[in-house]
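Holo prediction — aspartic acid.
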Amino acid sequence: MLKVVKFGGSSMADAGQYRKIRSILQADPTRSVVVVSAAGKRFSGDHKLTDLLYLCHAHVQYGVDCSRIFKMITSRYLDIQSDLDLDLDLGPELEALKLSIDAKKVTQEELVSRGEYFSAKLMAAYLGFQFIDAADWVKFNMDGTVNQDASYEALRNRITPGYGCVIPGFYGVMPDGAIHTFSRGGSDITGSLAAAALDADVYENWTDVSGILMADPRIVEDPQAIPEVTYDELRELSYSGAQVLHEDCIFPVREKNIPVNIRNTNDPEAPGTMIRGQFQGEKDPDRFITGITGKKDFSIISLSKRGMSNQVGVLRKVLTVLERHNISVDYVPNGIDNVSVVLPTASVEKDLYTIMAQIKQEVQPDTLDVHHQIAVVAAVGRQMAFRPGISGKIFAALGESGINIRMINQGPDELNIIFGVDNKDFADAIRVLYNSFVK
Ligand code: ASP
């Protein structure tokens, strides 16, 4: 049995959290491959180390002295080092880093990667585990994708069987040896790659909530955690707005059918959320909706043209205009002689007038409008599929609460029901759904 365990920033925030991690590992010795994030916030209003590192680089870039920020960074690490009474001394390496920063010899990606690098060094020293640098095995292709085969082989060659190891998350190397980072939150991907490389039995992702919540706790008071969710549902939930795991982290574990267990470092007894391909026998057969999520600030571009249903290529022309502007479309609800495209306002804002003019010229619609301030809400659940009455219940509940629906979309796999409302109705729509399906 092998478990790859990843601890996020809040789990790595100070020496107290390191102690919790050690007892979590001692409670189950199969948790032997540990992936860590950079130190996160200790309290609200605190700073994430990664943010400070980005800030540090921005200062240098503009020729502003970053010594004060760098001091904040070093003291976070040196405090952990002294609180845990470690033999390791990061001091000289931190000083060398400062010299390279001042000499402008460190790229942004290399600098921000040091957040996880130093975390992993400290954790390895604290646990007495082997330190395995991500730069020695996470290998990127020139296009920024991961060369999985080469990476997996390199990790397998570095692991010493029977010994625990600690790996920094978030970064790897390009073919020319330069440090390259994933996008923010990318330590989740490193953990997933390690689990896939080593054919782990489970990938545990430890964070500061007891699993994925059914709805955003800033909107719904004290939402329940989701006990079980499939990879597909999770993909839907994250795409539609739920911030749980990095959205690319599911792919490596999914290829090897490795379950992911989201756990809470501050409540290690809680079972958290289990993510896998399928579940046999539902824990709660009456729970049709797995989670409710959504995002604000979409725009809907709508056009109508008489006889459009009999014309070939109208939709293609609209999509081609958007493609020309490198804009990806989220949903395409349509009627008989009209079609709309729904996309994030931020993606379209800059070129909106040109886009509208081009659509007008190429499609010659009878009407062409754009509406902003639209929120998209998604109800996701594998148990909704092929079950009559669910969408009826959703829309009845929204109607009773006076919430106007601006568009409706359902994927053919019936894994989700997605609808658009005005931004101002966003939170109410989520609360109404939660109250009618969960409470
Ligand atoms: N430290 C990085 C970030 O804050 C990566 C991670 O924590 O996953 O985005």
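READOUT: The longest strand covers residues 291-304.
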